[in-house]
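Summary for the funding panel

The consortium committed to producing paired sequence-structure records for every protein in the target list. Below we show the first two records in order, beginning with the earlier of the two.
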Amino acid sequence: MTYEYPEAEGKLRAQLAGLFRISAHLGWEDSFNTHYTARVPDTNPPRFLMNPYGVRFDEMKASDLVTVDLDGNVVEETEYPVNEAGFVIHSAIHRDRHDAHCVIHTHTHAGMAVAALAHGLLPIGIFALGFHESVSYHDFEGGSGRHNMSERERLAESLGPTNNAMIMRNHGLLTVGASVPEAFVWMFRLNRACEVQVLTHGSGGEYVMPSAEAAANTATATRDFVAAYGSGEPGEVEFNAFLRVVERQDGSFRS
């Protein structure tokens, strides 16, 4: 069945599908077992777009994305099932964080490694310092799904009302943004922070711990960077740069 989408939704679908292609390009995919979502414009109660279970990130198209409501009901006909873990995690955030229009959850090697460490993310590099006093943690409750719907309350509580990044212990990473580009840039920086930490773990040397002032300054500079120094929407400049890369490779994600 073919649907005609309003202009704003059509643009959002292309952006989100492009995000999946970027993620494949960066090596963030875990087959099709993680999930990214974006709130459909002008829907109340909220509905959000979600990747279908069974489509790889490197083949995602705008028309593949599935629309679900906060109860996990599929709004439009689709040949694919919805990942229940993805629905539980993402509906928790979309329901309680009205500013979080896009939610990204990954299982990258570096992210999962840091999520398994008791001390979590260390303030040892410029990427990690960008999250100074603004990264959340959520304790592992086992694989998410309808068998544990009450986890939604705790997920939202763990993220809190203002943070854009959360480390899900023993699991992976999660970021949110007011748009697809903003959520992407926060995830890019969080994952890079984890990569640096994992690399330093094997060095055998002592960590250099920056001062509190340096940490606070880096957090401020990071927010300014994500905001594109006022030259565009948050995350837009960097996201569009990556989007050009995947579009040169294969622009079919827009279809």
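The next record, for a separate protein in the list, is shown here:
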Amino acid sequence: MQSESAPLIIAIDGGGTSCRAKLLRPDGQVLAEAHAGPANVASDFETSCTNIVAASAILFANAGIGAERLHESAAYLALAGASDPKAEPRLRAALDFARLDLISDIEATVLGALAGEDGVVAGIGTGSFFCARREGRLRRVGGRGFQLSDECSGAWLGRELLRETARAHDGLRPHSPLSRAIMARFGDDINELVAFSLRASPQDYGRFAPELVAAREAGDEIAGAIFARALDELARSLDVLEGDAPGRLCLVGGLGATYEALLPERFRARIAPARGSALDGIVAFALEQEAQRATGRAAP
């Protein structure tokens, strides 16, 4: 039986939009849940720390536990941007927890989706990543950020749409109903489209994705060509990973279901629903680490 004085576990899944958090006892009993603002340590370290502390304080308040115990707890964080090796020592210096362990949001997503089993996870939302898990080891393709990768993602699709629209405007390809609608949105002024592209974030580009999906389904030529390229990129990434983990394939994220219906049969036959979320993944990681510490097998 756990002692009431045993360190409590804070598990946080933090991304570019929000934090989701749970407070647990070492035996896995959930005491409270909470939400707070974004925590991407690569893009905004200070705000990430502020929101991690805020989520932790909300957890303790929701559980009816005095905030004085917060600094005695063990924090397990799955954060966007955590692949930078400098992130963990910076967080340890900035945050007042008894222990702190950090993994990336990608690793937590894979752990949650596969529930500890082998397989491949394709995470396709505003950004994207592709990751295989085999015997506890991960191999990743993509997920290097919007400027370098994020193929198939909503941001990538939106940028491709604006590129093809500009090409159509310049006479390098025929217009389609979708590209004409995009030009009309910018007042049929190519300079306005260019100005938008110079200030647009991945989230801004991603807002075009639902329109692009609908246009492909309606038979739009430009939308069809963009999705054909996206599917080629997706298949190439999955083929690279298949040798590492040929088992279950989980497609997660806002565009996962869209691609699931379009993939070749050799992939569709392996698709299985995700068993859990990134928050489930960081909780599982935390409990495993605590169990290993209890038996003296975990790193200090």
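Regarding this second record: The chain has twelve helices and nine strands. Residues 221-242 form the longest helix (22 residues).
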